[in-house]
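Q: Sequence in, structure out?
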Amino acid sequence: MKISYEWLSDYVRLDQSIEEIEEALTLIGFEVEGIETVGVPALSKVVVGEVLKKDQHPNADRLSVCSVKVDDESEPLGIVCGATNFKVGDRVPVAMVGAVLPGNFKIKKSKLRGVSSEGMMCSAKELNLGDDHAGLHIFDDRPQIGTPINDLFPQPDTVFDIEVTPNRPDCLSYTGIARELAAWFRTEMKFPEIETSVSGGTDEDHLLESLEIRDSLACPRYTAWSVRSVTIKESPEWMQRRLRAVGLRPINNVVDCTNYVLLETGQPLHAFDHSKIKEEQLAVRRALAGEGITTLDGKERVLEEGDLVIADGERPLVIAGIMGSLDAEVDDQTRDIVLEVAAFEPTGIRATSRRLGLSSDSSHRFERGVDPAGIEFAASRCIALILETSGGTLGGPPQIVGHLPETITEIQVTPQQIVDRIGFSVQEDEIEAAWERLDFEVTRASEPSDPWTVRIPSFRLDVFRIADLAEEFLRMYGTDRIPEASVGCPAVSALPESGVDQSASRIREHLVANGFNEAFNYTLVSGEEAEFWQPGNTDFLELENPLAKDQSHLRPSLLSGLLNVLRFNRGRSRKDFRFFECGRVFGGNSELMTESFSVAFVSCGPLRKSTWLERESFDFYHASRLLQDLCELAGVGWAADKVGTVVDSRVWSTNRAAEIGERSGVRLSWGALSREVLEKHEIEDPVFAGELIVDPTLLDVSNSSSKPFVPPSSFPRSVKDIAVVVDRGELAEKVRSELEKMATAGVGDFAVEKIQIFDVFEGAGLPEGKKSIAFTIEYGSPSRTLTDKEVGLAFEDLQKRIGSASEIEMR
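A: Exactly. Output:
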């Protein structure tokens, strides 16, 4: 918000420098984003001149050669000018040789197309008077020739551009900022004076026949004032100057008055041309489906049911709290006006403004909360200014419907509670004085141990608890005065970490140790993305009012975000990447939504440790081994006997991906991603990935076995090979696991250290529907060399067990 120093000085006496005011605003919570000077600065050698002669330039069609008188003693100056809006006899600002205009533009004697020019006649913009640079600034009041320009205009004004946080709508006004500075500098605040009487007349003078509210929750209070016989013209120069200083364009005296009071008090107002109100009635109602309105910015707006409007007997005239329509604007033909001042519920204004993509000074304030108790004062102030500037007459007392909402808050608090929160001792009188400077009403208890009652004014909607009172005291006390002290950091909770947190921590450490970089993505994705990763489900949990179209649904998988990260990085001339993410994913539908813990990883490109040593690429088996480690770390187990090929998947590549199904609360999938999903994310190279999705209640790191480092044995292993015949559809890993159990059961004080598949055969020599799988078995001991006899006995035991098995037979 832009605040003019000159304007602000109407409400609070400020003897401090601009720098001190800037510092004060920052200390009390309003960051100053910029300071600028507006108006005519101190300019030497810029005076009023009169055009005595105007001739066509001999060498340029668009230039004229003028003779300009700047004083009674000197000869007229010859000045070449490109403007066309002036004539002989006009008095204009003239910058003589040696003058320096705003922007450090120095005036020198020069030649323009062969003709000497001894100065420059100036436009309003060149003097910092306004934005008009189409022609010269002409003095209609014809001041005396030679008058310095600074004698004709007020001193330049300083404008602060401050950031007002959303919780302080009361400070989106001059009176709000003045109140804060008055409290800080311990001086009195002066409210605007209503100099013109705004009472008189009877109900018979009203311009409206009826006024009603059809939704009292959306609009609890609505007032309409009638003003007859106004004269629409430019507003006074002082008002225009102030509006321009804060970035508003003056329109006419009535509209400018509403804008002036909005900035002054923070209460939005709207003026109707009475002649354009059909059937002389106004109603606050919900829009009908298909109704439209052409707003003051000239755009057609299609309304929806639920949008709050102010309508006459035929159509909407205002999108309530946001913007009026061209159908009832005040223009040069307006003679009678109806002034609206109302209270609106913030949520509905915010929703309509966002849906329409339409924001205004009014909606900016109503969305955050406007003090309903200020309606009457703002209306009276605006009516007084309109009567003063337009010469109209009041059409009776205001028409009022609805009630004023109760916004006064009372808080019970003891001084010790404030001291406990701020962390240092302070006198009770100082606490009370700080609150009272902010217009809080403090009532002390009769007993010292009893709490005080602090009554919060209606304009402070953000103060409703003891912590807020502590903050308000600190703002007025001065955060720069807080004494130095050690900062305590008590634990939030003494409870142990949850299984989710412990699992995620161990998983992160393991993946980082394996060369992966962690990514963090949004939990929300687009509806198209959600459907792609959970095909067949069209009933996702969707946000009613998403901030962006690509963030409307809860994500069903982490892989989508990781692929976006991969695409982003590969677009920056890098080739090999490993990324992972731990987070929440969501499944089910809008009626029964499930939330699960997930960890996913992606790898693209070869694994390079240096520029001269190239390692094998990350593939299906690397992904499988890594996912087994993650399951172990999460304490959910691997379930090798349930591994199966992924079929009919848009995500995974056929015959190059696997999954583990039929497990309650746990889903595993890994392998090569399909060409379809890679093209969707604009990735050309193959990508191998894996994802674990698990019910958070199943995560328990106590189930994961600790594997301490075991040094390699210095004794040789004994190796045996064996081949077995099984059904063709049998999983090799399942057979290997079964053999490992059988072999382990037949050893003594040594161990089966490894059983590894080295061949799978199908074809001639085997029964129909069968296959052969060959394994290498390694026996070993950490303390001795095994004998051939004991290894032979263990191997014979294994063969016997195979012989008695029903699904496995020796080849």
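The mean pLDDT is 89.
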